Here is the input.
Amino acid sequence: MSAARWRKAMSTGSVAFAPEPSARALPALAPATPRAAFLHAIKPRHVLVLALLLIFPFVATPFFTFQIGAQSLALGLVALSLTFLGGYGGMVSLAQMTVAGIAGYAVAILGTSASTEISLAWPWWLVVPFALAIATACALAIGWLSVRTEGIYTIMITLAIGVAFYYLVLQNYSLFNGFQGFQKVYPPIVAGVDWRAPLPFYFLALSCALAGYFFIKYLLRAPFGIALQGIRDNARRMNSLGFNVTAHRVVAYGVAGVLAAVGGVLLVWYNGLITPGSVGTSWLINILVIAVLGGMKHPIGPFIGAVVFVLLQNFAIDLIDRERFNLVIGGVFLAIVLFSPDGLLGLWARLRARLQAGRAVAATARPSSRT
Here is the structure.
């Protein structure tokens, strides 16, 4: 079934008996292909934001380029995987940082690190695909275990998996090097470029973030994405229409796993290390906080939430003690949930709607210029 027919069928409330649109009716429908719908969705503001992102590292200091910009992009990519699952699939997973950690540990074990007795020192072009494949396979396994549950049970299962992985890497020394983890896990030098330098690493993170963002935007307009959103809204109805609900959900976990794995590789290269603390319970919750802060109804939300989170993480200590950082994050999170359940994007949409309503009222109240 085409994406255009599916949209029309969902709007009419019937799929099995929805007639094929005639050739004369096609121009009135939305773009018939995901690519056309994706291109149609690109607005001038998207081009402006892209231009600002490209200019940013040339006008900002190396600290803001690397510590703020690159870290926000990497964390936003991991949070995007949660937004895709929760916002568009109706499955809130607390194991996305676990998937990212699996990719990070795979890079450290298969590549080079200070623990030469454990790391295998494979070349980077072989390490990265293997790390992404291992993490994606683990994400599919997590999805296979958790998709048959809903709501709080899904959250608890994924949280249990995350905690189990944390204690596994903490207590295993032969493979994960225990609580010390792996140090000096640096990105490779390719074509004479040190990719851990602020400017190259920023553009590496930006390229991965843009690829993930546009891929999700495209996928949401594809038949799979539309079916996944239908499953989120009414899984029983979608099952009666012939869709394999379990398969769609498991594949969604795999897609989210790829995004989280790429973010995990970027994070281990950004930090230059990975330890059990990188996949601890606090970081499992932080990814959820980032996604909710930005808003889970649009793929740009996780990146906005990541910027806010990283800024608070770096500058909140100027106002309060470092140990009170979680209190600040908790306060901001509570305020967002209470006043704007849709996150910062929802708050901005409400303000824009009020401004438009005010302009409309002012326009109607303005006296006519006719005499």
